[in-house]
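Example S7 (structure tokens).
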């Protein structure tokens, strides 16, 4: 099977149900941004050595990649919610919340804004956080236009929170300081 089909050469693409939409449609943008987030998660995984101080993080990220693929598949289904095949469920969100709670227990509370940075890995988590926030905004826009499973928006919101916490945990474990924002 060839990778190219030529079916999208005029600016449209196929969905799970066989229908076609413009590549600029909110649905395509939303699941494309989820795919982009998944690629960034893959980059972080590739930077984490197996059996390192981040092995627990690596395992969680591998699960998140699976979740993001499911989430993207649900967004690619124009019958989303109408056929009762909602793939993103509250249990996925609860799992993310448990991870946040566990990692936050390693950290001291902050009362200031932090800038992305400290370590390369922390910076990569901040990139993931911002890409997920963009995907969330697109999902919200799609939800307002066509309606989607609300758990998708909630999952993305919580995932960006997890990436923020992981950015801080990464700096702590690498003995790097978070960079506070200072008003000049």
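Recovered sequence:
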């Amino acid at each position: 099977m060839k990778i190219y089909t030529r079916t999208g050469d005029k600016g449209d693409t196929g969905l799970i149900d066989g229908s076609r939409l413009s590549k600029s449609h909110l649905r395509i943008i939303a699941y494309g941004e989820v795919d982009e987030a998944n690629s960034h998660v893959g980059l972080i995984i590739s930077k984490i050595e197996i059996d390192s101080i981040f092995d627990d993080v690596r395992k969680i990220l591998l699960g998140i990649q699976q979740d993001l693929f499911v989430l993207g598949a649900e967004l690619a289904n124009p019958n989303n919610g109408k056929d009762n095949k909602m793939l993103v469920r509250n249990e996925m969100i609860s799992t993310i919340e448990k991870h946040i709670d566990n990692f936050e227990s390693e950290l001291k509370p902050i009362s200031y804004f932090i800038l992305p940075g400290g370590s390369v890995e922390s910076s990569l988590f901040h990139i993931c956080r911002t890409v997920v926030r963009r995907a969330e905004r697109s999902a919200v826009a799609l939800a307002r236009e066509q309606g989607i499973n609300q758990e998708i928006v909630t999952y993305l919101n919580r995932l960006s929170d997890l990436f923020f916490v992981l950015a801080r945990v990464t700096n702590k474990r690498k003995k790097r300081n978070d960079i506070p924002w200072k008003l000049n």
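Notes on this example. The helical segments are 26-47, 55-75, 90-104, 120-146, 150-173.
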